[in-house]
Design brief:
Layout lengths: L1 H12 L25 H7 L8 E5 L6 H14 L3 E6 L6 H6 L7 E5 L4 H14 L2 E7 L5 H4 L4 H11 L5 E6 L11 E3 L9 H14 L9
Helix pairs in contact: 1-5
């Protein structure tokens, strides 16, 4: 109850408490995808992340997971949508994200320090609150053994919370975790650490073009 009260307080402080009981569809009732801001990926997805579904972005360290999720959040914020990041390992860098174009005033950042269970509860509360365009749960630095302890029914419940809503929920991990039947899996390749700048952006575009291996959903 204390955790829920804290989340609700944060939502009210940011005037994001559209509802604290369900993830009801937005009034404008848009049924299109949530564009990621990356042309090649949006083309592969048929427009963007499926709204009302749970998807995942997976890949090894240095594969571009942080870049991808920041671009997704930034694109949603630029459309005027509220976005949320549940940061299970307290690894999000707000300054870098803002420099990449993310409007932090549109972001609800829920921080933790490695407790996957508490982070999952935080995501569930945010999704139940409703009114978000994109909600991401970053489990990339949480040991795989801890993530695998969650039964599949855990992710099924998450999917039901947002079913029919305009929220696109995303899990970030080193390996595949889960997605809802209408969601997608975006699998990224590892990059070479020495690449940077324009070369790194080109590498990321190649990875998104050749291998998100977007699975499920529209593909």
């Amino acid at each position: 109850m204390a955790a829920r009260a804290e989340i609700e307080s944060l939502l009210r402080a940011r005037k994001l408490d559209v509802t604290l009981t369900s993830a009801a569809p937005w009034a404008r009732n848009r049924r299109d995808g949530a564009p990621t801001g990356m042309v090649s990926l949006d083309e592969a997805l048929g427009g963007g992340l499926p709204r009302g579904h749970l998807s995942e972005v997976v890949g090894p360290r240095s594969a571009g997971r942080t870049t991808v999720i920041c671009r997704m959040l930034a694109a949603a914020a630029a459309r005027g949508e509220a976005v949320a990041l549940i940061d299970a390992s307290d690894r999000f860098d707000p300054a870098s994200a803002e420099a990449s174009g993310l409007d932090l005033s549109q972001l609800l950042w829920v921080r933790d320090s490695g407790d996957a269970t508490r982070a999952l509860k935080g995501m569930n509360l945010v999704l139940q609150a409703g009114g978000f365009g994109v909600v991401a749960l970053d489990l990339a630095d949480v040991p795989g053994s801890a993530v695998r302890q969650f039964p599949q029914t855990t992710w099924m419940r998450i999917g039901r919370v947002i079913e029919g809503s305009q929220t696109a929920a995303v899990l970030i991990g080193a390996e595949r975790i889960a997605r809802s039947p209408g969601g997608v899996t975006i699998a990224l390749e590892a990059s070479r650490p020495e690449w940077s700048g324009a070369a790194d952006r080109a590498r990321l575009l190649r990875a998104l073009t050749l291998r998100p291996r977007v699975v499920g959903g529209k593909i």
